[in-house]
Structures are given as structure tokens and as C-alpha cells.
Amino acid sequence: MLEDDIKKELAFVYEGVFTFDTRGDDGIAIKAIERHLKNYKKVALYGAGQLLNYFLRHSPEFMDAIEIIVDDKEALWGTIIHGKKVISLHELPSDIEAVFVCIHQTGLVEKLINNIQKSGKNIHIETLKSLYDFDLDGLSQKALRKRIEEVYEDVYVPAGKSVRFCIHRAFSHDGSDDDIRLASMLADILKHQKMHVVGNQELKVYLESLEPRLTDLFDGDEKKTVLILETEFLRIQALMEEYPNAVTLSILENEHWRSLPKRVWQVYDQNVIYPIVIPRISFEQNLDFLLLDLPARYMAMAPNGLGYVHNLLSTLDIKHQTADFDIVFYHRFHTKRIMDGMECLATKQGYKIKEDPWDMESADEWEKPEFIEYFRDEIEEIIHKLIASNPKIVGISLHQTNRLMAHEIFTRVKALRPEIMVLAGGYDSANHTLAKSVMDEGCYDYVFVGEADMTMPDIVKSILSRGEPKNVAGVVSRYDDEHFIWTPAPLILNLDEIDFPKYQWYGVSIYRNYNGYQLMPIAASRGCRWSKCTFCAECFSWRNNSALYMADQFEWLYNEGCDLFHFNESDLNGDPTALGNICKEIINRDLKIRLVGQLRIHPESTLEYFQLLRAGGFVHLRFGVDGWSKNTLRLQKKGYPKKTVTQNLRDAHASGIRVTTNMVIGVPGETDEDVNESIAFVIENKPYIDMMENINTLMLAAGSLYYENPELFGIHFRGEKENLYAKYPKMIPADLWYSETPYIDHHIRLERYQKICDALFNAGVQFGEYAKWAAKRHVEQLQDNHSSNG
Q1: 138, 35 in Cβ contact below 8 A?
Q2: Structure-model confidence comparison of residues 371 and 783, the more confident one
Q3: CB 413 within 8 A of CB 386
Q4: pLDDT band at 5 (very low <50, low <70, confident <90, very high)
Q5: Cβ proximity of 187 and 213 under 8 Å
Q6: What does DSSP say about strands 715-717 and 737-739: parallel, antiparallel, or unpaired?
Q7: Which residues make Cβ contacts (< 8 Å) with residue 104, sequence separation at least 6?
Q8: Cβ 12 vs Cβ 162: under 8 Å
Q9: Whose C-alpha in 113, 197, 634, 705 is 20 to 30 A from the C-alpha of 404?
Q10: Contact at 8 Å (CB) between 339 and 233?
């Protein structure tokens, strides 16, 4: 229980009440709220959203304390949610004694409280703040903050934000009066208790120069009390593992927080998940196989592809380890940025780092050597420990953003440990052309093309038996005979035979963004059943998992704390009935989850079908419309007419699902009339489109029909085709190819792109963040083209 005098110094922050993972005391707090609400005879709940779903996960009986649900959405009035009727605020019965506002965002809580007060209802209002007001169990310390705005001038703490003592900001290292006062405060706190100091010796010397008393106080016995004299959070965290009973400079906050310099207080978002335990960079000894991933994937999403390979290795009688250093780098980076109060990070050479290098707009950064230098210490640690561990085989999942880092690591490791076999797979070897380009880097021994379920086990066994397998279907290797004719690998047909990823190496909870946002990737199929779109490079055999398999996977991950899933596949509704059956199984199991995915426009997708998807958890569907005129739909071989596009978008939107769309511009045969028709058709469907998520000019990507058979589509090159394909194995640069009848080059594609974006913007069509960024980049390219031609 908090004393009244302590409460006077603290403010409550709704955003800090719950950790939203399996480690905290969230369940205790939810049960305490439930018991508190049962003091009333009848309670209404206001705000039946995701927080309520979270409550029900921890306490399925929570709704026993609730009589009725209040919501502002007219479409919900009269419906039943969690067994309770939904009404408007004005319909609230007179015998309801209290309204519980089930929201954890400060601004929204205040809005709903204001609605209740304006309604004129004489009723008790309960919120999450009841935990604080009534000293209920489970109140997190993160829900409380010091009222620094009452102590320091010119300090403003916005609603929903919190404050923390930031050790890294404590000392300016310039002999200032503030530094002298802090050193004196530290000596006063220690008094006659000598400390054994570990950590930053330069800081130790500096503090002793400011306060002579510290020289004697820092000369304690290591076996007694240890003082960690560090200001960087990650170093403090590492030393705390070695000295678990040590104290840190946070004792300054505990003793004299009102006397500290204003600069030590950091205003930050309360939903930040740190501190967390970040896995170390380490390798086991005597490994048969080390499975590795390097940054950067998108956000802090879990690597489900890596998970399938991990499970495949687990079926072999070998010693293996999985090390996902993408997530390690991610949390190290954001811990330093946030916990050390660093507004701007930079390399030692002065290259400035973006706030979040893992967002989509920063993908190009990972291909720059000057950017990679920021992670130099981690790279050197990986190389040193990998050489020392000396595993027999290393497997790496390659994608565009980790190629540069992976190349350096394996080139240097192979130089000293040539006996280590390095196997590569992933997005950057999705087809034979790409796999050959990976092999050409010289640091890989085997590259798996596409799926490796049927090929990897035998190759691993052969290598471990000191063999050198060669001429294997689905694999490119440096041992292949010169005249070997490559063929694709056989594909596993029954996907239910493969266990779904469970991320045993670190656990599921680490795969969340720094702000707690967790989007879990999942796949119900592989390949594409349609496989005819002319621009697409993902045209291979479609297979899918059963509804029971998928529901088991959702249920397992749900019990691990996940409730938001993204279907990470090309053709989710390749079989509409199969997807509907998954939703039915989710409904049968009462899994309170949210689903996001991309669908093809399909004639079997009726209003009733989308209503089933919504009931099964779908909250967001992205439609790969791509062609928005009659002619471009034909050119792209999409397989449906415009009327089906409108029907799908309208019915999905009417079902309460967020609808977003894509567009591809500049395909061979596209005309100016197609551009005008596309603009008009998007605007016609604007009522059903929540957001235009992506607009792309056509990319000549390896694996697409345009890339494989350019002559069939009137595509020509500025240079010899063979030379360009050898130099650019992944994608031909936009300025090095054009199409005829009519003539379209990269200038025309960009001009059409700008025309479409301008028209849609002016018509009020909403663009997603990535689409906005892409539009800005295309406009800059167009301006550069005009400048170079001017």
C-alpha cells in the first residue's frame, strides 16, 4: 500500500498498467479489478475492444462482473459481445451503479469519461486507475511516475507519457557545478560505506577528482558491496548478471530525486518494453549445425521460415543451435536509444543512424558499409566466437538486408576456418538465378533454391559423414560438375507433416517491437494456386495446411501471449473454402485473435464469406488488385473483371474488415487511357478502400514472366541482355529496360506514377505510410530525371 505522502509525488499513467506478455503481474491486476467491480450490484463496461479480450484471456469469468456493454458504434447496438448485450450510452438502465471504462490509452479514457459526464448519468466511473486509488493488487511500478513538472520549470509531460531517471544523462563530464553536486550527493549517500567499484574506470577517476571523499569510499572489498559505475544501460545490465547484489548510480534517484539536474529526467512512451533480458551472442561447442540469422527483418517479427528449418534440424540426430541475431541486434539498438536517452545515434565515423533501422523505409540502409559500421562491435564478436566455436556446418537465411553483413562474416570466418561448410537459403535464393548469384560471392558452399524440406536432411547427413554431395536437385553448390543441368527439388506435398514454428531458441515473447507491438507471422499455404500474374516472381506449386493444423498453431501461439497474426504468403485464398474452414475452427475454439492477410480478388468471395472471415478474426485484408483498368487486368493476367473487384472490396468493407489495396503501374501494353481509367476506378471504389497500401512501378524481377520471357512482351534493354542479367541477377534497374507498343520507359512510368498519386491524393484516397514514402521517393527520382535531361 502506498502512503499518502508518497502518492502526492506520483502520477498515474494508464499506458503503464499492463506489460501484455506472460512475464508480468497482469493477471493479478485483472483479477483485482474483477473483485473490485463485484462490490457493485450491476456494472456496465464501456469499451469492449482488445483490452477486454486480454482480460478474458487471464480471467474467463471477468464478464460475470458485467451486466451490459456500452459502445459508441451504432452498428454494434443490439448485438451480443461476450454474452452481453451492447447498447448506447443514452440507453443505460437506471439500476446500473457503475461504468467501467476498459481502456488503457489516456486520451481515450478521458474522452469516454467526458462522454459519461455529458450524458448526465449520476453514476460511479471506474477505470484502471482504481488499481491506484484503492491500492489494489498487481499495480505495476510502470503505471506510476514522479511529478517532475512540479519541481522543474519548463518541463511538460504529455498525457500518456512517463518519466524515468536516465543515468546516461547524469554527468556532462565538463567539471560543471551539476557534476560536482552529483558527486557530492553520491558521497553523502555512501557515507562511511566503502564500495568495490566495477565498470567505467574513467568515470571513477573523474568523480574522484570532483569529490575527494569518493577516493576512499571507492576502495571497498569486492566480497562485500559492489557499485557498478556505468552509465550505459546495456553495460549495467551485463554487470548486474555478474554482480546480482550490486548497486548502481540509480541510488541518486532513490535518495534525492528532487535535487537532481533537470537533464537526468527522460520523458518517454510508457508502453516501452525495456528493460528485458536480451540473449547474448554465444555459440555452443562441438556443434554439428549452427542455424543463423542476421539483421534486418521487418520490425521485430518472428522468423517463421527459420522456425521451420529449426524444426527440420530437430528431426535429425545431430547437435544443433539456432541463433537469431536479428532480434538481438534489434533490442540492443533500441535499448541503447531509449534507455540511454539517445535522441540521435551515429557510428564512430559520424554516420547518423535513423530512429528505427528496422522499419520498411530504412531497408536500403543495410546495404551501405558506412551504416553497417554502427554494429562493428557485434560483428567482430560474432566472427571471433564463431571461429572459436568451429561448428561443422553453418546455415544462414539470406535476404537483401543482411547480404552485406553476412558476406563479411563468412568471408572472414572461412579464411581461418575453411573446413566450416556454409549453407545458404532464404528469400535471396528463391529461384535458380538468384541462387547462382549467391554462390558467386565465394563464401557459401551450398545454396538451397526455394524450399529445402526434401533436400537439406540428406546433404547435412552427407557433410557430417565427410562427404561432398554434388549435382543435387534444388541445390547449387561449389562441388557441382561443370555441365550439371540443374533441376528443381521435389516439394513436400502434405504440409501438416511439418511441425509449426515454436521459437524454442529464445521464446515467443522476445519477438515484439520496442513499444510492445507484436505482429506474429504465420502461413497456411505455400506457393500460388493462380501463378499466372505476369509481373510476379512467386509462381510455384500451391499446397496448404489443414484447418485443424492451423487452429492448433493459433491456439498454441495464443497461449503464448500472441493475438495479432499476419498471413505471410502469396495466395491465402487459393482455396476459399479451406480459408473459411480455418475461420470456423477458430470460432469453434473461441480464440480471441486478430488476423491480417492478402487475398486475391475471387468470385467465390461473397458478403457471407467475408462475414465468416470477420467472425474468424480478420480485421484487415489487403487485396492485390494491381490492375485497375479492363486492359491492365488482362495484361497482368489477373483472371477477373472489374465488377468482381468492386464486389469484393464492397463486401469486405461492409463486413467490418479494414480494406487496403495495391496497384502496379507501367506494364507492357499499358496506355494513357488505362491510367485515366485506373484513376477513375480507384476513386469509384473509394468508399470501400480504407487505404492504398502500395503503388509500384513495374519491376523486372527475376522469376517473373516479364523477366524470363521479355521478348514475348516487347521488352528491350539498353545493353546486351546477357550482360545485364549477369550483372543484375535479382532485378534489372528501371532505366535499363523499356517496352514498346506503346513505348514505355522509366521516365514514362514515373510520370504516370506521379499523375496517379496526385489524382488520388486530390480525391481524398488515403495512402499508407509505405505508399507515402514510396511516392516521395518516386517523385524525387522523377525530379532527378528532369534535372539530368534539362
Answers
A1: no
A2: 371
A3: yes
A4: low
A5: yes
A6: antiparallel
A7: 14, 15, 17, 18, 51, 128
A8: no
A9: 705
A10: yes
Name the maximum alpha-carbon separation found in the chain.
89
The gap between the terminal CA atoms of the chain, to the nearest Å, is 73
Q: What letter does residue 702 receive in the DSSP assignment?
A: T
Distance CA 488, CA 703 (A): 13
Q: How much is the mean pLDDT over the chain?
A: 92
For residue range 592-632, what is the model confidence (pLDDT) as tens digits?
A: 999 999 999 999 999 999 999 999 999 999 999 999 999 99
DSSP 320: E
Contact 445, 478 (CB under 8 A): yes
Distance CA 409, CA 290 (A): 14
Grid coordinates in use for 297?
527483418
Give the C-alpha separation, 356 to 354, whole Å.
Answer: 5
pLDDT at 2 exceeding the cut of 70: no
DSSP 237: H
Give the three-state DSSP class for 441. coil
Q: Which triple of cell numbers denotes residue 303?
A: 522468423
Per the CB < 8 A criterion, the answer to whether 600 and 571 are in contact is yes
Q: Dig out the grid coordinates for 407 from the structure.
A: 558476406
Q: Can you give the pLDDT at residue 355? A: 92
Q: Are 378 and 281 in contact (CB under 8 A)?
A: yes
Total H helices, total E strands in the chain: 27, 33
pLDDT band at 772 (very low <50, low <70, confident <90, very high): confident
Give the pLDDT confidence score for residue 136 in this predicted structure: 83
Across 451-551, the runs of DSSP E, i.e. the strands, are 475-477, 520-522, 525-526, 543-544
Query: Whole-prediction pTM value?
Result: 0.91
What CA–CA distance (Å, rounded) separates 102 from 51? 7
Q: Residue 711: what pLDDT? A: 95
